[in-house]
Write a structure and sequence with these properties.
The complex is a heterodimer of chains A (139) and B (375). Chain A is α/β, with parallel strands linked by helices. Chain B has 375 residues and is α/β, with parallel strands linked by helices. Chain B has 14 helices and eight strands. The termini of chain B are far apart. The chains are: A alpha/beta (139), B alpha/beta (375).
Chain lengths: 139, 375
């Protein structure tokens, strides 16, 4: 059986979640690999959520937020962006950066971009392979 | 504002000269007390808060021992908001950097503190100098005089061997001895009005810039330390990078959270990892172990360490006290040196460098990091 990645998605209520809704109501086809979790803002996604998903065996984590300048809470996504810079830097310093975490800005009008992003991310993770932490039960 | 003066050392005793200056501040009411390293008659090295200008025997402002980061003590005793009392805190550069971060994190009120920074070329591993602490005066005197050996001192703590910040970065008044003959003179630098007011009545000579010998010495020290950091990080990279090796690196973690408790910049009153979120029921553990096949105990150690890095690395001052407190000897000093330095560099930030630089995660610019989220 071929490897099917399991993705945890944190979707901002105001933009990306609505974008996902639009993709659905427009009957767009995309892989069913992502388990979406609705959050009020991408800025509320603490690193601990991303890390817990990865350490517990998710193959990828997707974070969707409003485009810069469009945040419902004015500046939440600018803070998300800084937090991702920090997160990526730490993962790189520890040799853990494998492209398993993806942040993308997707508005409520971008149903197609949402479907394309999930398709593309799923493809990417199929190539990268299973998350090694899945089998390192020691963690 | 920077006012520099050379202080004449009396009776070839730099420590006594400085302690006498402290006593005068206490007598004249400039400070209500001073937090300063000391060695008790039993040879125990601890910071003390001293308020009696006559009881100065055990006080050692230059003591090259650090069992606790002084910033933790400052947060503990001066963390209650503005109180109308001002104490002087005599701190090494990494301790001062911790205090600066805590001020920015609104954990310590700046107006309660007079920041006195001292030079620090490094602090000894405690077990290497325990015997010498019985003659603390002689120990500190030798330490001040024999500056050649600091450059490559294997008995210094690992963090100190990699530390390029031997002089304080933020202070009201800084007291320096590196690159000088401390039997003759010390250098005093005042950076604030408050610092200048402390210089009244001292036997000093104004100078426009630090002596060349000092500048040269500090740049050589900094160069060697950076070199040592590069070597130690390269060694770390050889055996710790990647999921499997990192899991091994943290394999012995007991989940005691000592590294968090002793960390000067880990400031939360209630750590997330000690909150109810982690009070899990037995059936929850069973559910996880069924899903994974089996579940390591104590659980969640890796999550703890990686999350702690994400929460603290922009403020880490690389003092290495976390590793000293680790009962199983996990090499946190080198790891945090690398991780925090890289993380801070992303934001062009250096922990404890300035009170005016905003903390990286509390600020943003609209026109930065445009590639993130757009790839």
């Amino acid at each position: 059986m071929s490897f099917e990645p399991r993705i945890i998605g944190f979707l901002c209520n105001w933009c990306t979640y609505a974008g996902a809704d639009l993709a659905g109501t427009s009957r767009m086809q995309y892989p069913p690999n992502m388990r979406p979790i609705r959050v009020m803002c991408s800025g509320s996604v603490d690193s601990v959520y991303i890390l817990r998903a990865l350490l517990d065996g998710a193959d990828g984590v997707f974070i969707g937020g409003c485009h810069p300048g469009d945040c419902h809470y004015v500046s939440g996504n600018y803070k998300t962006r800084r937090r991702m810079v920090l997160f990526n830097s730490i993962m790189r310093s520890l040799g853990l950066e494998e492209g398993r975490v993806l942040l993308r800005w997707i508005s409520a009008a971008e149903g197609k971009k949402f479907a394309d992003t999930v398709t593309e991310f799923t493809e990417r993770l199929r190539k990268i392979g299973p998350n090694p932490f899945k089998h390192l039960w020691e963690v | 504002m920077l006012l520099m003066k050379m202080l004449r050392v009396r009776r070839k005793d730099p420590e006594a000269t400085v302690v006498e200056m402290f006593s005068n501040w206490l007598r004249s009411g400039k400070v209500a007390g001073l937090l300063v390293p000391a060695v008790s008659k039993l040879g125990i090295a601890v910071p003390v808060l001293f308020s009696d200008p006559e009881r100065v025997d055990n006080v050692h402002p230059f003591l090259p021992v650090m069992k606790v980061n002084g910033a933790s003590i400052v947060a503990e005793i001066a963390g209650g908001g503005s109180s109308g009392v001002r104490i002087g805190v005599v701190l090494k550069p990494c301790e001062m950097r911790g205090v600066v971060e805590l001020i920015k994190l609104q954990q310590v009120a700046r107006e309660n503190l007079l920041l006195i920074g001292v030079d620090c070329p490094g602090t000894y591993k405690l077990e290497k100098v325990k015997a010498e602490l019985n003659d603390s005066k002689g120990f500190v005197r030798n330490f001040l005089m024999e500056q050649g050996r600091y450059l490559n001192e294997p008995n210094f703590r690992t963090a100190c061997q990699m530390c390029e910040f031997s002089v304080p970065l933020v202070y009201d008044l800084a007291i320096g001895f590196l690159g000088l003959d401390p039997g003759q003179e010390l250098i005093l630098t005042a950076a604030t009005e408050l610092g200048v007011s402390l210089l009244d009545g001292l036997e000093t000579v104004d100078i426009a810039e630090p002596p060349k010998a000092r500048v040269d010495y500090l740049s050589e020290l900094s160069r060697i330390r950076q070199q040592q950091a590069v070597e130690k990080i390269a060694e770390f990279d050889r055996h710790a990078l990647g999921p499997e090796r990192l899991v091994k690196y943290f394999a012995d973690c007991l989940n005691c959270h000592n590294c968090m408790k002793v960390c000067p910049v880990c400031y939360c009153r209630q750590c997330f990892f000690e909150s109810e979120v982690f009070d899990r029921e037995l059936d929850d553990y069973v559910r996880v172990s069924r899903r994974k096949g089996l579940n390591r105990m104590p659980a969640g150690t890796m999550l703890y360490h990686l999350t702690r890095m994400n929460h603290m690395m922009t403020s880490c001052v690389q003092c290495g006290i976390c590793e000293e407190s680790c009962p199983v000897g996990i090499g946190l000093t080198v790891l945090y040196k690398k991780v925090s330095r890289n993380a801070q560099a992303e934001f062009n930030y250096l922990s404890g460098r300035s009170l005016d630089e905003p903390l990286p995660l509390t600020t943003f610019r609209e026109d930065e990091f445009r590639e993130i989220g757009e790839e």
